[in-house]
Design a protein that fits this description.
By secondary structure, this protein is mainly alpha-helical. Helix content is 75%, strand content 1%. It has a domain of 272 residues: Orthogonal Bundle (MetI-like fold), CATH 1.10.3720.10. It is built from 25 helices and four strands. α15 crosses α25, α21 packs antiparallel against α22 and α22 packs antiparallel against α25. The chain is globular, with a radius of gyration of 26 Å. It is a multi-pass membrane protein. GO terms for molecular function: phosphate transmembrane transporter activity. Belongs to the binding-protein-dependent transport system permease family. CysTW subfamily.
Length: 650
Amino acid sequence: MDFTGKTNGVTPRSGNTVRLFVLKERSVKTVFFFTAAFAVIVVSFILLFLFRDAYPIFADVGIANFLFGPVWAPTAAEPLYGIWPLIVGTLLVTLGAMIFSVPLSLGCAIYISELASPKVRAVLKPAVELLAGIPSVVYGFFGLIVLTNVIRITFDIPSGETWLAASVLLGIMALPTIISVSEDAISSVPHEYKEGSLAIGATRWQTISQVLVPAALSGIAAAIILGIGRVVGETMAVLMVAGNAAIIPDPIWNILSPLRTLTATLGIEMGEVPVGSEHYSALFGIAVVLLVITLIINLSAVAILHRLKERRTTTAGKQPFLAPETRRKVVFIAEMLALAVLLVFLTSVSWWLAPVILMAGCLWLAGRPYLSEKRIQTLAFCLVGLATIIVLAILFIILSDIVVHGLPALNWDFLTQTPRDLGREGGIFPAIIGTLYLVAGAIAIALPFGVGAAVYLVEYTREGKITKVIRTGVDLLNGTPSIVFGLFGFAFIVLYLGVGVSLLAGQITLALMVLPTVIRTTEESLKNIPQSLREGSLALGATKWQTISQVVIPPAVPGIVTGAILSIGRAAGETAPIMFTAVVFSSRFLPDSVFDPVMALPYHLFILATNVPGSSMNKYGTALVLLLLVIGFYAVAILARTHFQNKARG
């Protein structure tokens, strides 16, 4: 590798060449700075355009009336724009989802971290990641076809599209996030804690429940907060199963009542509203409220995780994140609140469930002193194992339902023909190609900006104010709900820039959405490159850019590629960002240019499932193709990551 910098026999020591090298280095650094600042610019533009279009409703109705008004009736003779029922619906669905997902997630995380053998762990972790890879519209389709029917039959009600259905479905979607972050938090507890506990005679379960979990409590709290953010920002799944009635359940704990969330309202009404109308402004007002809620949630989780990371690197003499006594109080209060809420919910489902659960709890408390620690450990391990089995069963049920019913639809004609009769007949070829076009354009836009931003953050700057601002921008962008990206794309790209509903508008919108993923995965890859390689290169006379381009980036390429594949998988499965920016339901032709609208598999499945009766086989076939496409990308990323990790260890 030649780092001498000789050019036509002139060494870098000559004045002109030195100036050229300095100019080149400054230019490269400036370019990387602007790629890093791009995330901050995007967040600023999102806030600007959302507030710009939301301002009229805030001015006309008033912020207090808008937030706490009891009726949402924008199409009535006298329109009413009170979003309190939508806020309550969002909170109730989120509460139910957490009650469902948190116990299962913690049990599964404990099993993966502390009980599973290396071989079992190697299977469970990818399975959880695959659960995260299922597109939200596929979850919604499964919920609409299977889950709502189960609820309708079980409780003998006219429709299964209820608060319960939405909470269970979103709880399933939150499982991978909570499991992954909680497992990482538990695994990160210093090994000395575990060894010390076992050395003084504690059982494995006592060590887990009284040492490891309390020590990881801050990380677990961050996992739950991130799960809440995942639920609050979800659009398509909740739109398809919640019933979409803009009412507050009566009584408030009636989990069999339909309701509507903030995101579902945007998804349902944005496509039909006249641009510039009061209703249009009200929807952007909802987007502002939703964005503020999700950003607070996600930034709280980021702050907790950052504090946890700092705590791991502090000396032993410093104070822990939470004192042991405080931890015990927090855990006890959380348990009591969860039990109280659970009893209320069970009472609303069936009058006898709550007394049965309460009696079982009393029997446990009464019999607890007479049980040996060994029996308690056996019972606890059984419950933890059961939670893991339930998570795997959920994954199996969803995948098997889609595969079993979707396989009969798969044939050459289905994959290569255009749709007919509103998608009931024909194939999905334009939707497949449209999805690939959208994904290819999105990653082509996001990858240069993401890699450039990561290079600047790792190689050109130290931790300081500028870095903190950029990282905050990336965190804010990462926490922005997908439906908000869709509204921003519509307001800025489609209308303001005049691009129109088109392939290009969808590609740009998806690129903005996956940009944080590219930045974070690239940043982690660059950080894993040994510092000694950089120092050796610079010692040989290489410039900063030569070191980065020829020494640092090449070994980081596998990680960068993995991040790109994960971004492709996410972009391929998204519906909300392209609903208002890029897609049409049916088209016999492929787009002639980037300024034409396209078909896409997620949107095609959504319309088939919600608006086209009598197309069961094609619905399942579309869901299976989308599932195979997205999970295929995730599987490739997982295999690539595992391969390079094993290669690095070897």
